[in-house]
């Protein structure tokens, strides 16, 4: 199967086939699916993280150059960079300090990362299968404002390939309006490998979404959410959220830390309520 796929890819490089964009896309997808099937047969999340960080290849890069514009390639590279940086931070278990822990086990930790600043890490277990969380957080990303009061609106400005997005997020005021309205323009990258899903992102520039009057343009990143079934309980999901934000403006560090830590706790509570109130069958409609 893999040999035949590479022959298909090689054929798409001949002059009389160069304009057959659909064939090149099929080749890219087929190679990706076959390599994933062979290399990722159900590893643990830590193994998967290492495989994601090593998976870029010269062949993939050359094929992508024929499918995307220079700007789209830059966004793809930026999304990949955000994922690798965020996963690298999560994989380093040293230096984390507990910020808070709820009665239900939800835990927020933090540490200072060189060249990034203070980052926050939320770890929760959600009594729903991973597929449900993936639907709500990735496939229904633009509906987040319906259930998360900390988010007024999320819009997908551009989709690049099957797993990279440019988004605009308008956040609500926080800390009793001490933190005024912020918005974010980000590149987000969603990857699924076996039983694990990662949604990563970081700030980017997008010409069609300039800064808005009365709203401070803040910056994400690198940030990510990692989802995988809870060991021994596949109907439950372990969610880990790495949050790194520069809110901009003149804000005391103590207020920023309080806001970001509480934002993660609130997010977990709102997500649970959303999943409980919206059955899986309804979510897929």
TrEMBL record:
Which SMART domains does this chain map to? Answer: START (SM00234)
State the signal peptide span. none
List UniProt keywords, sorted A-Z.
Lipid transport, Lipid-binding, Mitochondrion, Steroidogenesis, Transit peptide, Transport
Its transmembrane ranges are: none
Question: Cellular component per GO?
Answer: mitochondrion
Give the highest taxon in the source lineage: Eukaryota
GO annotation (BP), single: regulation of steroid biosynthetic process
The cross-references to Pfam families, in alphabetical order and at most eight, read: START
Q: List each copy of the START domain by range.
A: 67-280
Q: List, in alphabetical order, the Gene Ontology terms for molecular function in this entry.
A: cholesterol binding; cholesterol transfer activity
Q: Where in the cell is it found?
A: Mitochondrion
- Which PANTHER family does this UniProt record tie to the protein? STEROIDOGENIC ACUTE REGULATORY PROTEIN, MITOCHONDRIAL
Q: How does it assemble?
A: May interact with TSPO.
Role description? Plays a key role in steroid hormone synthesis by enhancing the metabolism of cholesterol into pregnenolone. Mediates the transfer of cholesterol from the outer mitochondrial membrane to the inner mitochondrial membrane where it is cleaved to pregnenolone.
What protein is this chain from? Answer: Steroidogenic acute regulatory protein, mitochondrial
Organism annotation: Gorilla gorilla gorilla
> What gene is this protein a product of?
STAR
């Amino acid at each position: 199967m893999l040999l035949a796929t590479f022959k298909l890819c090689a054929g798409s490089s001949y002059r009389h086939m160069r304009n057959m964009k659909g064939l090149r896309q099929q080749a890219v997808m087929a190679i990706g699916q076959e390599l994933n099937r062979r290399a990722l047969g159900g590893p643990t999340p830590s193994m998967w993280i290492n495989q994601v960080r090593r998976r870029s290849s010269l062949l993939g890069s050359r094929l992508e150059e024929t499918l995307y514009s220079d700007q789209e390639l830059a966004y793809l590279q930026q999304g990949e960079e955000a994922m690798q940086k965020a996963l690298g931070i999560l994989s380093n278990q040293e230096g984390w300090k507990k910020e808070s822990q709820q009665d239900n086990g939800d835990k927020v930790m933090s540490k200072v990362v060189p060249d990034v600043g203070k980052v926050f890490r939320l770890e929760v277990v959600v009594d729903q299968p991973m597929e449900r969380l993936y639907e709500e957080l990735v496939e229904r990303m633009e509906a987040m404002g319906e259930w998360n009061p900390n988010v007024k609106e999320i819009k997908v400005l551009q989709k690049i390939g099957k797993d990279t997005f440019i988004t605009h997020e308008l956040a609500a005021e926080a800390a009793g309006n001490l933190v005024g309205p912020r918005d974010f323009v980000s590149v987000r990258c969603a990857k699924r490998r076996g039983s694990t899903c990662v949604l990563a992102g970081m700030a980017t520039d997008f010409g069609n979404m300039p800064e808005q009057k009365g709203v401070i343009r803040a910056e994400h990143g690198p940030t990510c959410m990692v989802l995988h079934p809870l060991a021994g309980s596949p109907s439950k999901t372990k969610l880990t959220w790495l949050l790194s934000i520069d809110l901009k403006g003149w804000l005391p560090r103590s207020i920023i830390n309080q806001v970001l830590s509480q934002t993660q706790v609130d997010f977990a509570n709102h997500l649970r309520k959303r999943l409980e109130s919206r059955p899986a069958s309804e979510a897929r409609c």
